[in-house]
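As described in the Methods, two query proteins were run sequentially through the folding procedure within a single session, without resetting any intermediate state between them. The first query and its resulting structure tokens are shown here.
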Amino acid sequence: MQQFVVPQFIGVEDKVIGPVTVRQFVILLVGGGLLFIAYRLSDLTLFLIELVLIGSVTIGIAFIKVNGKPVHYLLLNLFETFRKPRIRVWQRKVSSEELKLFKENESSVEPTLVVKKNQVRASRLAELALVVDTGGVYQGESAKLPNEELV
């Protein structure tokens, strides 16, 4: 049988430039692009305020980790949590007359045939496990002995 090398550290991101990963590099590029646009469109004092805000958010998203995961996973989970309600309230919109009509229509339909599979007994399962464990040497109690004749 061939030997294969199994990767050990699949959770570690590849480094691009020094300690910066590809994900961090792309986030820093987007932040730098936003800062360039802010520089071109605003005066110096407004740009300095934008530089502090955009720079801190960009560096925070790129480098901060919460519970060993990047911050953008936390932000995505927060967005999902606020988008979906935590409490699901059942609102009954079907009247009792409609429910009775539905039950009457359901009873007129013929029931479907349910096929049950044969259940494996625990004793048979133990016997099969013994056959597998012995590599087929043990044939089981149901196997015929070689000197028995068919009756």
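Immediately afterward, the second query was submitted; its sequence and tokens are:
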Amino acid sequence: MKYILLSIILFFSAGTILAHCPIDLHRAQTNAGVGLSNWGIPVYFGVDYCVVRDLTIGGEASMRLFNNTFAGNNNQTVFGISGNGNYHFNRLLKINKNWDFYAGLNLGLFLWNNSKNYPGGSTRLGLGGQIGGRYYFGKAFGLNLEFGGGNVFGGGKFGFSIRM
């Protein structure tokens, strides 16, 4: 794990030229993609908003479908809604605006439903952390990669971002 983290830091540090926040103050970016999980492939959509220099807050909705063979072929669906806060290290590390390296915390509510007639479903609260980065191919479109834990994405997620 420490080699993966070191590789990510070196990869995103390679783009250092000028110091700029990746999202302009009082502007937003949208994010969408797929997650990494032992139980199905989660999909997500979210928005981040720059509230102060180098700090964003955001929200995210997610869904994951999977078949739990340990529970007698029980089809399960997980819906999630969460909020996050991230610190963007561009200015601190002198990374240009095409790159974005960030870390933060998230808090979410996840609703588990199942196809069998098990009593209820389950609602869970998840607190987690994330570290990630993205690269913008121009002014608006970028790809992102994030690792984290404590929420429905467990291992991380991959997708695209659009600055608005």
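The chain has one domain: 2-163. We note this only descriptively and draw no conclusion about the first query from it.
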